[in-house]
């Protein structure tokens, strides 16, 4: 894959809620097809940053540009996957995945064919007619991912999508996500609390610091792809996890102390 052009450009982005400065002077570029993770202590503004890029929240100053255009609201060029699946319980898996094209008015035979391929890609081809309640947590997140991809977004925004899953399912979902990402060459922003997850998945990790939220460091993960899960047991992998952990350790200590005090 070639990282030929800039997909997202964030410049001097700040966000306050009332008197609370949540984000301060965030400047970063994301290249086309890159996988970026965002880590940092609780409350450092990771979700707020993702919501601004998603157009669900407005910046107080500065701007985020997608393909050169200032982001001013939500759009079909961005797909969201949240921690809790947001599947409609009265629709089947396939009907849930169709929602974007339906709203777009683009649900034709070609779109249906594409959706069938997507369901196959995420391993749900045998479950198209099932209601979400009959799926496991991991399967529901696969359906969520397929739904986000169904409109062929420029940018996939994922906010702790695997954090409600058990450890084994989570690891399987990580490998599946990389497979889907490699197949579609999408640009991804992925928020997580798990440093090893961030290292395993990413080309680069944005390490946020808090009060106010800002980028402390951008870590380039120079590990070969495709990455088998066994890469997590290599010394190189451990070094990346260590480096990132050290960057946020002090911040996390302060948060824990503050929680205990008050
Ligand atoms: N709509 C809002 N109104 C007021 N304050 C908000 C709002 N949204 C977020 N905040 C505050 O902004 C700060 C950053 O929140 P945010 O959820 O972006 O952090 P985070 O890094 O994603 O946290 P976590 O890792 O715990 O999910 C927090 O102090 C939060 O209380």
UniProtKB/TrEMBL annotation:
It comes from the Bacteria. Signal peptide: none annotated. Residues 8-231 form the ABC transporter domain. Coiled coil: none annotated. Keywords: ATP-binding, Hydrolase, Nucleotide-binding, Transport. Its EC number is 3.6.3.-. One of its GO terms (molecular function) is ATP binding. PROSITE patterns: ABC_TRANSPORTER_1, ABC_TRANSPORTER_2. SUPFAM superfamilies: P-loop containing nucleoside triphosphate hydrolases. Belongs to the ABC transporter superfamily. This is Aliphatic sulfonates import ATP-binding protein SsuB. It comes from Hartmannibacter diazotrophicus.
């Amino acid at each position: 894959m070639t990282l030929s052009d800039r997909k997202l450009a964030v410049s001097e982005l700040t966000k306050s809620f009332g008197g609370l400065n949540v984000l301060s002077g965030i400047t970063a570029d994301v290249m086309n097809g890159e996988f970026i993770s965002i880590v940092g202590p609780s409350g450092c503004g990771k979700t707020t940053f993702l919501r601004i890029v998603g157009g669900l929240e407005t910046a107080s100053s500065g701007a985020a540009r997608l393909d050169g255009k200032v982001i001013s609201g939500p759009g079909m060029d961005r797909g969201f996957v949240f921690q809790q699946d947001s599947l409609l319980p009265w629709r089947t898996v396939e009907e849930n995945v169709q929602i974007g094209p339906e709203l777009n008015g683009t649900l034709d035979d070609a779109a249906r064919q594409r959706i069938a391929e997507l369901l196959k890609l995420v391993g749900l081809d045998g479950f198209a007619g099932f209601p979400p309640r009959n799926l496991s947590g991991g399967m529901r997140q696969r359906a969520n991912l397929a739904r986000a991809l169904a409109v062929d977004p420029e940018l996939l925004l994922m906010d702790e999508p695997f954090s409600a899953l058990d450890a084994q399912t989570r690891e399987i979902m990580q490998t599946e996500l990389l497979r889907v990402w490699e197949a579609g060459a999408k640009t991804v922003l992925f928020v997580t609390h798990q440093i090893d997850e961030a290292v395993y998945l990413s080309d680069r990790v944005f390490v946020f610091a808090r009060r106010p939220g800002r980028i402390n460091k951008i870590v380039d993960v120079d590990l070969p792809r495709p990455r088998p899960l066994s890469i997590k047991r290599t010394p190189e992998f451990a070094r990346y996890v260590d480096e990132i952990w050290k960057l946020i350790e002090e911040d996390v200590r302060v948060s824990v102390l503050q929680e205990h005090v008050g």
